[in-house]
Amino acid sequence: MTESKADDLNIESIDTLMTPAQLKADLPLQGAALESVRSARQTIFDILDRKDPRLFMVVGPCSIHDPKAAMDYAHRLKALAEEVKDSLYLVMRVYFEKPRTSVGWKGLINDPYMDDTFRIEDGLRLGRKLLLDIVSLGLPASTEALDPISPQYLQDLIAWSAIGARTTESQTHREMSSGLSSPVGFKNGTDGGLTVAVNAMQSVSSPHRFLGINKEGQVAVVRTKGNPYAHVVLRGGGSGPNYDSVHVAKAEEELLKGGVKTNIMIDCSHANSNKDPLIQSLVMKDVTRQILEGNQSIIGLMLESNINFGNQKIPKDLSQLQYGVSVTDACIDWAETERSVREMAAKLKDVLPGRSMPG
What are phi and psi of 6, to 5 degrees? Predict the structure, then answer.
């Protein structure tokens, strides 16, 4: 067998992308937008270090498919963020890549036109432009770090990153996270277990060396310093929700046993809401109650929210898409988002400044 017949047997084509440096030159992060990102990261660092007593809350659509609606949402969230800033630090959820259990739409970067054309270069450009527009409002942005290459194109705009339940156990994602400039939250495994997340936090704080790309798009050996701002995100699992005080106490024990900080974020969606978006508000109420009763470990929340309620399938005729409605997991609408966030901020305003660092 010749070499040509032993290679790329299942590859249809390989197309060269623009480099990260080229995209950043076309859509640069500078001026007030750059300062906005730096300030946002430092705020979250301070919350994780217990220098800032507020909670940070990652709020926004399950996934972004319409940049116009995303900016509509961003303007609304910016106004709400100003209103509750004494208690809560709001970060917009700007998720471009969606992990799929089998098949399905993989997100704005992979398939920006939602027609299986996979114009990834257009997706990267759309994503970076949207992030620039959001951070230029003075609103922090977060995303899920799913593809190990895309952070070179977008990570400079991100204030907080998530590693999903399906990838927390991945060595590739742990190594990548050790070099991310933002704080990173590791979700517990899909079975609800915390071991993989604790192991990930231990790993990500250490230096790593791995194959990646540099800003010129060349394959390179990446050497990281380790990321000291990793924490756990409780999102429930196969055994049910894990946001209640009993599960939170068990999580604190496992984190202490693993020698990592007891910083805990609660994902109000996914298995914690049994995929029912309305339950998210009840999760927020329970978390608020835990803090009022003395909890010291919960430092943040995640809320899946959109302009309009629910979700929708992607129609063949994209003109039939409903405005501001998720095409992935169902979300609460804007009115419920405002109500829930305002209620939590009001109840915790006088309590949060008195919280102390857990042991």
Answer: -100, -5
